[in-house]
Design brief:
mainly alpha, Butyryl-CoA Dehydrogenase, subunit A, domain 3, 160 residues, globular
């Protein structure tokens, strides 16, 4: 299998990871699509340098989050802000409307967090361990735990 085929396979296997990052760091479907493309482009540029020292998903999260933060900073410099058109792209297929509403509320509150907090809570919700989150973000494991505690409390306060 050549490099291009390997890359396509990795992207297909981890598309959900990219969608989650784009959902949290954008406010419109168009921005989500733009950010998705930018993340895939950055992954492709770096694919040859992946050394398998960590899980592929950890490497992808690091690039996706860094790309999303750079994209967000670029948008801030433009001075324009696009209102939220749609709370979620690719809404979960849930029969329970209460659960669906709770997921929408959670994601709408996550969007209100600052840039770093969004990334940390997204990784936590993905089931990453504190050590994995520390490896992706560059914070110490202790700092990740402290930040997560504060983020959870902030979300509880915002939702109530």
């Amino acid at each position: 299998m050549n490099s291009k085929e390997k890359f396509i396979k990795v992207i297909k296997e981890n598309a959900g990871l990219i969608y989650k990052v784009t959902k949290v760091y954008t406010n419109s479907r168009e921005d989500e699509q733009d950010l998705y493309q930018e993340i895939v482009y950055q992954l492709w540029k770096s694919f040859g340098s992946f050394r398998s020292e960590s899980k592929i998903s950890t490497w992808m999260y690091r690039i996706a989050l860094n790309t999303a933060i750079a994209h967000l900073n670029k948008e801030k410099r433009k001075g324009s802000y696009i209102p939220i058109d749609e709370l979620l792209l690719n809404k979960p297929d849930l029969n329970d409307t209460l659960k669906e509403e709770q997921v929408e509320i959670l994601y709408s509150q996550i969007k209100k967090l600052d840039t770093i907090e969004k990334g940390i809570i997204l990784l936590y919700l993905e089931g990453k361990s504190y050590d994995e989150i520390a490896g992706i973000t560059g914070f110490s494991t202790t700092n990740v735990g402290t930040r997560l505690g504060r983020i959870k409390q902030k979300l509880i306060t915002q939702i109530n």
